[in-house]
Amino acid sequence: MGLASPIRxxxxxxxxxxxxxxxxxxxxxxxxIYITELVDTENAVSETMRPQSKTFVLLIxxxxxxxxxVTVKATNNIDNLISNLFFQLGxxxxxxxxxxxxxxxxxxxxxxxxxxILTIIxxxxxxxxxxxISIVVISISIMYIKPLVNRTSPLEQYIPQxxxxxxxxxxxxxxxxxSRDLSFPSNHVARDTAFIIIIGYWFRFFKNxxxxxxxxxxxxxLIGLSRLYLLQNYFIDILGGAIYGIIIAILLVKVLxxxxxxxxxxxxx
Length: 269
Hints:
Layout lengths: L3 H46 L4 H18 L4 H14 L3 H13 L2 H13 L4 H25 L37 H17 L1 H4 L2 H6 L1 H12 L5 H21 L14
Helix pairs in contact: 2-11, 4-10, 5-6, 6-7, 6-11, 7-10, 7-11, 10-11
């Protein structure tokens, strides 16, 4: 009896050690699988974000094709149909107010302020600088693209039922006389889409496919919807602006190496 008790105790201890080892091995294996999936996802996203990738080249080709179709007026029927649909939807003061507020959040002045705030904050300084550069690149390049495509803005003038202040005006898609009355591609949507790409790449929202990454895309989506509702752009203008914003954002993210810290320490002080 005295000998059986130590043997039983040894078996219990061995069994407990085996359970602990199995538990740790299972956790370790799960961590390895998670890390492997994370690396694979990161590599896939990095491949997509590379300017030499097939996806990037495809985006450029789609933008060129859209520009050509708009130039030869091949999209006029679908654009006019969608524009008339949004024209019929107008007239609700509450909806007018909502769309005006949404459109204002994507205005040039608002986004410049956002970029400056991000630049002031140390952790997001590089995001802010790259976004401000994207605003300049997009605004200048679109200023010359619009006359080449020569697509005039919607002829219908939006008259809101909601009473807006006398000094308030819905921002034109371009400020310069060269492209003020032209609409392809949408400057607002291009700028706001680039902002989301830069923010998303920095915080890895898209890499991990979180709900917040998906939610971010509602911002340029709502901006595009508000521009359609306010009769500032056609549907193809919105689509072209989104594609162009993605192209410029990918180029700047890679050329300026958003995933790397500043080389000059003085910028981080």
